[in-house]
């Protein structure tokens, strides 16, 4: 069936209606999204997931509309506590779909583990001895995960670096592993630990660390979209968005905020699908450091020959559909069903598209009216609730805060007091 992510009336529906509309749009049974209603995790389940579990923590789960990725409509589950993130993603996706939506690609799902060797008398000699033993070491690593190998994954390469550090020179072996549909940390860590003894013998040193690197620059996801100048508001706004992005490329102070905007979208999808947000964030920020050692923007914006804006984003995306919490958390399972993805690569590419959308929405707001009007209008609901407004009172309090352009706690309390006073 054809999937439909452009759903009239979605924003004005109730959460239960939205679940039904989203399931219909994604072509999955309505009950596939039931876990979104309960949060998908009991305290008993939580007790099996982490140590000293004392409960669970609820996070809002929204669905971003309007996404088209590689010609297919996608409804995107986003877990976030921040107002305006889900609206902004849907807003940019609506603009992108005019020019065909997002186009994505990814490298093979390859992760790397590092094995650090200390006290090596001849690091250059050790490096070549390890490379001579490459086939033996790869076989030893692959033997640790026959299931992964049978699925078409397994070790793809073994490389050796010499790292000059303060106390001396370290020989560092990199095990390069195709982890298929897993995030891969457990898989590659098991392999790295299994290699340690033999690597130490061959190098003639003492093995210390044996662990995945989160600088996952061999596992990249990419997204590209064209945003029409008309839909963005004209040539001047396109130019100003390019200037806004250019500042992020040139200035680490702006780059950190620019990339935070990208991660607003990325982390929300990564969390919703039960993946490791810290791994993705570590990969993204390490990738944002250029060859010159300077932290810069992860995305790029330029103007095409038609005068439209072209946005591109490429970053490490170590996400999986197997392992970690992805399979045990019912709401994460629902999120994956909503997305309709069958491989980790498909998930990674959609996450990159959401990151680009999020970035464009923020840049457009910043290059035009500023962030506060759109963001703070949506944040006004939080301010009203924090001031003690009940469900019946929220719309009136929010309306007055926006009209007064004073989205502040003290003003919300004042408005509430007025509303509750006789004749208010
Ligand atoms: C907030 C909007 C979207 C309003 O934008 P708008 O133009 O006032 O909204 P609209 O009513 O014309 O609606 C346009 C589309 O936005 C979506 N939309 C609009 N409102 C809703 C809503 N209530 N619920 C659900 N969806 C909503 C929705 O997709 C809608 O189209 P539709 O599908 O309905 O045809 C816009 O101002 C925007 O995109 N702002 C950017 C907000 C943002 O980036 N927030 C992130 C938090 S700020 C931050 O942390 C990062 C930052 C900004 O510092 C990063 C950086 O500096 O680069
Ligand atoms: N630095 C970091 O980022 C670290 C992260 N972690 C955590 O590691 C966890 C992720 O580890 P990960 O290795 O993904 O999880 P798992 O070990 O749970 O899952 C991977 C395993 O699943 C099996 N498998 C079954 N089907 C597939 C398939 N289609 N594709 C790939 N593997 C398949 C494989 O073999 P088999 O059946 O033999 O297991 C594979 O080894 C996360 O919870 C993360 O938070 C842990 C340490 C460090």
What does this structure look like?
This protein is 48% helix and 19% strand. With 424 residues, it is an alpha+beta fold. It folds into three domains: 15-107 and 221-368, Alpha-Beta Complex (3-hydroxy-3-methylglutaryl-coenzyme A Reductase, Chain A, domain 2), CATH 3.90.770; 110-212, 2-Layer Sandwich (Alpha-Beta Plaits), CATH 3.30.70; 373-420, Helicase, Ruva Protein, domain 3, CATH 1.10.8. A four-stranded antiparallel beta sheet has the order 3-8-10-9. A four-stranded antiparallel beta sheet has the order 5-6-4-7. A two-stranded antiparallel sheet has the order 1-2. The radius of gyration is 24 Å and the shape is globular. The protein starts with 14 loop residues before the first helix and ends with a helix. The mean pLDDT is 96. The chain binds 3-hydroxy-3-methylglutaryl-coenzyme A and NADPH dihydro-nicotinamide-adenine-dinucleotide phosphate. The site of 3-hydroxy-3-methylglutaryl-coenzyme A has 25 residues, from strand 1, helix 4, helix 11, helix 14 and helix 15.
Low-confidence stretches: none
Principal-axis shape: globular
N-to-C CA distance: 52 Å
| Order of the strands making up the biggest sheet | 3-8-10-9
Computed structural class:
alpha+beta
**Count of the separate structural domains:** 3
CATH top level of the largest domain? Alpha Beta
Question: CATH homologous superfamily of the largest domain?
Answer: 3-hydroxy-3-methylglutaryl-coenzyme A Reductase, Chain A, domain 2
Based on CA atoms alone, the radius of gyration comes out at 24 Å
What is the CATH topology assignment of the largest domain?
Answer: 3-hydroxy-3-methylglutaryl-coenzyme A Reductase, Chain A, domain 2
Mean pLDDT, all residues = 96
Helix-residue proportion: 40-55%
Largest beta-sheet characterization: 4 strands, antiparallel
């Amino acid at each position: 069936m054809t999937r439909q992510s452009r759903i009239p009336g979605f924003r004005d529906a109730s959460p239960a209606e939205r679940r039904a509309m989203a399931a219909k749009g994604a072509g999955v049974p309505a009950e596939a999204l039931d876990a979104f209603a309960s949060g998908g995790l009991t305290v008993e389940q939580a007790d099996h997931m982490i140590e000293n579990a004392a409960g669970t923590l609820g996070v809002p789960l929204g669905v971003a509309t309007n996404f088209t990725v590689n010609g297919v409509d996608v409804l995107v589950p986003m877990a976030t506590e921040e107002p305006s993130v889900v609206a902004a993603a849907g807003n940019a996706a609506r603009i992108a779909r005019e020019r065909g939506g997002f186009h994505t690609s990814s490298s093979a799902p390859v992760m790397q583990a590092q094995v650090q060797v200390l006290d090596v008398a001849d690091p250059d000699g050790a490096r070549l001895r390890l490379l001579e033993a490459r086939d033996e070491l790869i076989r030893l690593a692959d033997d640790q995960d026959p299931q992964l190998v049978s699925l078409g994954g397994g070790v793809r390469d073994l490389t050796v670096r010499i790292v000059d550090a303060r106390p001396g020179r370290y020989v560092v072996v990199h095990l390069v592993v195709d982890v298929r549909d897993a995030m891969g940390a457990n898989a590659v860590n098991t392999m790295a630990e299994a290699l340690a003894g033999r690597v130490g013998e061959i190098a003639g040193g003492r093995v210390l660390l044996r662990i995945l690197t989160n600088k996952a620059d061999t596992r990249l996801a990419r997204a590209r979209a064209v945003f029409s100048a008309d839909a963005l508001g004209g040539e001047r706004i396109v130019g100003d968005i390019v200037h806004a992005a250019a500042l992020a490329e040139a200035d680490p102070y702006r780059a950190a905020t620019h990339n935070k905007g990208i991660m607003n979208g990325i982390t929300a999808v990564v969390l919703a699908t039960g993946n490791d947000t810290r791994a993705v964030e570590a990969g993204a920020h390490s990738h944002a450091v250029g060859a010159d050692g300077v932290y810069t923007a992860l995305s790029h914006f330029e103007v095409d020959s038609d005068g439209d804006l072209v946005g591109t984003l490429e970053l490490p995306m170590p996400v999986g559909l197997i392992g970690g919490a992805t399979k045990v958390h019912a709401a994460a399972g629902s999120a994956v069903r909503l997305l309709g993805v069958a491989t980790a690569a498909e998930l990674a590419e959609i996450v990159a598209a959401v990151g680009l959308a999020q970035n464009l929405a923020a840049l457009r707001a910043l290059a035009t009216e500023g962030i506060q009007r759109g963001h703070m209008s949506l944040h006004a609901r939080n301010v009203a609730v924090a001031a003690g407004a009940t469900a019946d009172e929220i719309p009136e309090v929010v309306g007055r805060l926006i009209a007064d352009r004073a989205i502040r706690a003290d003003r919300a309390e004042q408005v509430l007091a007025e509303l509750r006073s006789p004749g208010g």
